[in-house]
Amino acid sequence: MSRLALPTLIALILAGLWGAGLGFAHWRGNLWFLDRVEATMTDLRTLVRGTAKPPELMTIVAIDDDAVRQEGAYPLSRATLARLVDAIARLGPKAIALDLLLVDPGAKDNDDALARSLSGGASVIAAAAVYPGGKQWTLGEGPIAGVPNAERFLWPLKAFSDVAAVGVVNVATDKTGTPRFVPLLFRAGDRLEASFPLRVAAVAAGEDPEIAADHLSLGGRSIRTDIGHILPLTFYGPRGTIRTISAATVLDGRFDPGTIRDRIVVIGATATGTGDVFPTPFDPILPGVEVISTAIAHLMAGDAIVRDQHVRLADAGFAVVLPMILVGLLAWRRNAGGLAAIAGVILIWFVVNMTAFSHHIWLSAALPMTAAVPPAILYGAMQLWLGRSRAQFFATQSQLLQRVEAPGMGEWLAKHGDFLSDPVRVDAAILFIDLSGFTGLSETLGPVATRELLNGFHALVGEEVTSCGGVVTNFMGDGAMILFGLPEPATNDAFNAARCCVGLSSRTNDWLGSLPASTASRLGFKIGAHHGTIVASRLGSEGRQHIAAIGDTVNVASRLMEIAADQNAEVAVSDIMLDAAGRECALFQSGTLKGPVETQIRGRSGSLAIWLWQSARTLQ
């Protein structure tokens, strides 16, 4: 065997093994880190496919702005809901589904009226699953190990659940908030409950579903499901694609009875401000009732997109074959002809993938890309001298890193060049630190001494923030704005921010102690910390950009520095921030923490619960 053939054979074997490993993990449902890429690719394929005509058997009765205006309040009273259910039931629908949580008691007469209305026909009402720590899936063994595991269920009032079927209404979303799946089963301990869409479909079909390992049978159809008995969602179009009529017109009798008769009628809220909306490929604010209705339509019409163990096995096959083909083509021709052949293979794979998607088969896009790209790049690097290319790559990295003034972001920016090219909303912890008395001191120090003083302060802030996992988004003279939640939000952002508060206090006190007494005596510092939603983006020109974070959370954190200064405390932290950080955070473990105290924040209506923290050193 030639010297050239042996490395190629080894590369082919390694590429196949790499793809096989990824394919096996995907078949088991363990490639969660590819979900974001797969979600983006799925949205693109959905948009390329275009809108689709939903089944005629669905009608949404929307509690919209007109209905709320007519009622004069939201939510609608139970008496009004009873009239609405009665008006629908008189026309003989297949099923009436209330996508509403009826968990709190109302006026007894009104509750009794709604219970009587629900008992008069085939009706389904919603329950909700509450998850421990917001985590839907937990590891386990047995046939229901992959079923979402709830801590408990929020069950409707007994008066309603006694006369109507009940289903769990939760959906499964990706990190962008887009609903991707509807779990058909839920569990809480040993208790197993059907989902709201499955319960509605069963009531409409007049039979209980038969559930197998990878499919369920309902109404004479076999509906294939993914791991954990989940039903993948594919949306028909934007808001209103599924027939929607206003609850106000139903109550007034101003509607076509044909939109109700022999159809599944789903009652749900679409009024402005109700909050039950989701982003989808076609619409950034699709009402939750339309998401639920989409799942019901999939179950009744059998038009859901399919991803089950058989499809996952096909994905695994692509993950093995595609990287081996690309490596083989690179070995065959390392010129324009070879690149053209590689482009042709990728195009064929894309056509196959898109064709399958348009025929309701969800082949993975992220898995073959992840399987094929690294081996092809590595093999190409082994075959070619990449000195000049690597120099250009590092030059590009350097140029990119110089465009953004945010210590702690270098490694991330080197890998994600388009980071924050579009604004994003994230939950984050925001810290502000500022030196007290610096302005007056700088007038007497002169420019050189002032610069040296600031350099020392900026250096300690940057080091401490980076060690705690945060990002300095801006140095503002003698102060700094610090963010925990970029480049990606994490569950321990607030915890790390609390640790940073204590660390900054300690290091700043040490730094002040190292200064001449005449300087240190005129300086102090204060820190403000808050947690909440921010909008992060890039600002500036192409030649020079910086990361900016805006929102009420940022404003409150800045104002908390003033409160710290007024109360002679080192740190002023909101109760929201401490709650997010937890009782084990550094602010509870060291120094003295006093509060909470309801405090008015300058420029903001209402008050906020504030805690004040002082290090043990300053209390001595």
Would you mind describing this structure in some detail?
- By secondary structure, this protein is of the alpha+beta class.
- It has 22 helices and 25 strands.
- The strands form 6 sheets. Strands 18, 19, 20, 21, 22, 23, 24 and 25 form an 8-stranded mixed β-sheet that branches.
- Mean pLDDT is 86; it is low at 400-405.
- Pfam families: CHASE2, Guanylate_cyc.
- Keywords: Membrane, Transmembrane, Transmembrane helix.
- It comes from Mesorhizobium cantuariense.
- This is CHASE2 domain-containing protein.
Give a quick account of the main beta sheet: strands, pairing sense, barrel closure.
8 strands, mixed
Number of beta strands: 25
Low-confidence stretches: 400-405
Summed over residues and divided by their number, the pLDDT gives a mean of 86
Helical content stands at 40-55%
**Strand-residue fraction?**
15-25%
Cα(first) to Cα(last) distance is 78 Å
The helix tally amounts to: 22
SS content category = alpha+beta
Backbone CA Rg: 30 Å
Protein name: CHASE2 domain-containing protein
Domain Guanylate cyclase: 429-561
Organism: Mesorhizobium cantuariense
Keywords: Membrane, Transmembrane, Transmembrane helix
